[in-house]
């Protein structure tokens, strides 16, 4: 039985984060990206500590810097991020299936490379496995030919057009030659290792590829894997190394579930403890309840109905925070968004549900007071009413036989039936009658008869002074 304060979701939370962190550790260890990740971990720990102890200035500065750091990391480590996302793709084996390597070529490759070592001919041979190398092997020349000692000699002999660079081997064939590889930035690499070895280590730090390097200075054959270099003594040792690493039936691929779970136990346990500590820190204030007053917003009213009255217009909500990372309710724009699409004409009592509130993750509704609102709906109608020109004072002398009229003289209004039945006319803005002159046009806006009535004519009307004879 689990303690009352731990849910099944919390266990899943901890295990998922531990798995993701261990994957990042496995991929980026002994690389410059790992050092940056450790630094970010320390900064994150400081941020949580400042939030916990209410150090507002420090936590605010760290929070503002986080956006800049994220953009900087994306720019600097875009190749590593792209490779990590590729590794996360569960469908990659369907779209990039691994074919069985033609192992009969391993012996010929090994013997040829050791002959290169005796002749002091430099070479670098990349064996592709599961992961894509498209973005890391640049400027290559496509060959797509069978592997043979003669082809390898033609590529890597001094003076050959393609000797400067790496050759890519996949499915028993040489796909590319004269490729440029990313150099390793590991400061612990010995100074006597040249560009070929740094290129081999740089590629294997970022992918699961196997790279074999022949040194022209020392006449040595080495194998690079996961950012590490292994010196080989003879062709049989190289063949065995390639068979073990590239063979789909190797021991690594036949690891049992228990072996996978309990291998590298120290880093896994350390990461699990770190995740548990962060989970405990995040959920320390679980259960904190805050009461806020929020407005009621009415949505989904039918086009055939009009809202006459709703009460109350605000409700008190008790919000429960499940994490210290959840922002305080005062910083949020919270409202009760009540759906009235199912409400009919007349008076209705509508219950407010927890789903009517849009809340961030880690915050839930504990209670709502009052728990329902009363709405009064009426049938929406339209009506044509005359425009009434409102004058202050009297017309100037000489205009006794004239009337003040508007164009249009009739407009439409819309609203609840009880309100529309009371509307006899729509008034204009007040005009000074003494300033009116015949032959001129005046533009005035119409005034809504009431708050619930909508004018369907939203432009100013034209006011004119015209003779009664001309009018008739």
Q: What can you tell me about this protein's structure?
A:
The protein is α+β, with helices and mostly antiparallel strands and 472 residues long. The chain has helices at residues 8-28, 32-52, 56-76, 78-88, 92-95, 104-119, 149-156, 195-206, 235-246, 257-262, 265-282, 417-420, 468-471; strands at residues 123-127, 141-146, 166-170, 173-179, 210-214, 221-225, 228-232, 288-299, 305-311, 314-321, 336-339, 346-351, 363-369, 372-388, 391-392, 402-407, 410-416, 426-427, 431-432, 441-444, 454-455, 461-467. The chain has a seven-stranded mixed beta sheet with strand order 2-4-3-1-5-6-7, sandwiched between helices. A hairpin with a 2-residue loop joins strand 3 and strand 4. Helix 1 crosses helix 11, helix 2 (32-52) packs antiparallel against helix 3 and helix 6 (104-119) crosses helix 9.
* Uncertain spans: 90-102, 248-253
Widest β-sheet, arrangement of strands: 2-4-3-1-5-6-7
Q: Calculate the mean pLDDT score and round it.
A: 83
For this structure, the CATH topology of the largest domain is: YojJ-like (1
- Alpha carbon gap, first and last residue: 94 Å
CA-based gyration radius: 39 Å
Return the CATH class of the largest domain.
Answer: Alpha Beta
The secondary-structure class comes to alpha+beta
- Determine the strand fraction and express it as a percent band: 25-35%
Counting DSSP E segments of at least 2 residues, the number of strands comes to 22
Question: What would you give as the CATH superfamily of the largest domain?
Answer: DNA integrity scanning protein, DisA, N-terminal domain
Q: Any idea what the shape is?
A: elongated
Q: How many separate domains?
A: 4
Biggest sheet features: 7 strands, mixed
Instruction: Give me the CATH architecture of the largest domain, please.
Output: 3-Layer(aba) Sandwich
């Amino acid at each position: 039985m689990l303690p009352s304060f731990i849910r099944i979701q919390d266990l899943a939370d901890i295990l998922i984060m531990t798995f993701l962190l261990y994957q990042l550790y496995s991929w980026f260890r002994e690389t410059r990206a790992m050092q940056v990740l450790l630094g970010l971990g320390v900064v994150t720990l400081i941020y949580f500590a400042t939030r916990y102890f209410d150090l507002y200035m420090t936590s605010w500065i760290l929070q503002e810097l986080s956006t800049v750091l994220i953009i900087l990391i994306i720019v600097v480590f875009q190749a590593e991020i792209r490779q990590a996302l590729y590794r996360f793709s569960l469908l990659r084996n369907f779209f990039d299936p691994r074919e069985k390597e033609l192992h009969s070529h391993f012996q010929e490759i090994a013997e040829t490379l050791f002959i290169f070592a005796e002749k002091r001919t430099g070479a670098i041979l990349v064996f592709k496995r599961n992961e894509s190398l498209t973005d890391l092997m640049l400027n290559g020349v496509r060959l797509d030919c069978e592997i043979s000692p003669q082809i390898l000699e033609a590529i890597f002999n001094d003076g050959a057009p393609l000797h400067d660079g790496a050759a890519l081997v996949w499915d028993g064939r040489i796909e590319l030659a004269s490729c440029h590889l990313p150099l390793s930035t590991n400061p612990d690499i010995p100074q006597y290792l040249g560009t070929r070895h740094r290129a081999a280590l740089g590629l294997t730090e970022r992918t699961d590829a196997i790279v074999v390097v022949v040194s022209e200075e020392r006449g040595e054959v080495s194998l690079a894997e996961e950012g590490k270099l292994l010196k080989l003594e003879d062709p049989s040792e190289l063949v065995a190394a390639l068979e073990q690493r590239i063979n789909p039936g190797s021991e690594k691929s036949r690891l049992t579930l228990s072996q996978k779970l309990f291998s590298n136990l120290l880093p896994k346990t350390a990461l699990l403890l770190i995740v548990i500590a962060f989970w405990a820190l995040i959920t320390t204030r679980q259960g904190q309840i805050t009461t806020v007053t929020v407005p009621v917003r009415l949505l989904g009213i039918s086009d055939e109905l009009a809202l006459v009255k709703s009460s109350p217009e605000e409700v008190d909500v008790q919000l429960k925070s499940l994490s210290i990372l959840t922002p305080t309710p005062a910083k949020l724009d919270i409202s009760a968004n009540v759906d009235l699409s199912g409400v009919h004409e007349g008076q209705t009592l509508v219950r407010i549900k927890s789903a009517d509130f849009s809340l961030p993750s880690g915050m839930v509704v504990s209670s709502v007071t009052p728990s329902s609102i009363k709405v009064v709906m009426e049938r929406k109608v339209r009506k044509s009413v005359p425009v009434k020109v409102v004058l202050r004072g009297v017309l100037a002398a000489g205009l006794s036989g004239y009337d003040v009229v508007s164009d249009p003289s009739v407009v439409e209004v819309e609203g609840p039936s009880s309100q529309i039945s009371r509307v006899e006319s729509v008034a204009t803005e007040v005009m000074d009658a003494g300033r009116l002159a015949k032959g001129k046009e005046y533009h005035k806006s119409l005034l809504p008869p009431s708050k619930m009535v909508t004018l369907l004519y939203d432009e100013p009307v034209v006011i004119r002074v015209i003779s009664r004879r001309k009018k008739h």
